[in-house]
Amino acid sequence: MNKVLNLREGKFPIKINQKLTKFPYDTDMGELVEGSVDLSIEKLSYELFVCKGSVDSVFGGTCQSCLKKIKIDLNFEIM
């Protein structure tokens, strides 16, 4: 998932819409069960960009108190 965008070149808006299959960083939340990214990047001027969209994910892990399986929903709205 390590992708680099050169925002000085290319056609705008840039649209990113994909499912997440793995999370590349270690977290205390558990493993990624499902996730999706839906973003749009628009160019306002030579060095000014705006990003809009959402990132939705569900992590599965174990409760540290009762040791039951739990799901952690993380949903971000980017405006």
Overall description:
This protein is an all-beta fold and 79 residues long. It has one domain. Helix content is 0%, strand content 56%. The protein has no helices and four strands. It has strands at 14-20, 31-43, 49-62, 69-78. It has a four-stranded antiparallel β-sheet with strand order 1-2-3-4, with no helix packed on it. β2 (31-43) and β3 (49-62) form a beta hairpin. The radius of gyration is 16 Å and the shape is elongated. 0% of the residues are buried.
Which descriptors apply to this entry?
79 residues; mainly beta; 0% helix
Please outline the helices and strands.
Elements: E1 14-20, E2 31-43, E3 49-62, E4 69-78
What is the structure about, briefly put?
The chain is mainly β.
Task: Give me the number of helical elements.
Answer: 0
Helix content percent band: under 10%
Morphology call = elongated
Structural class call reads mainly beta
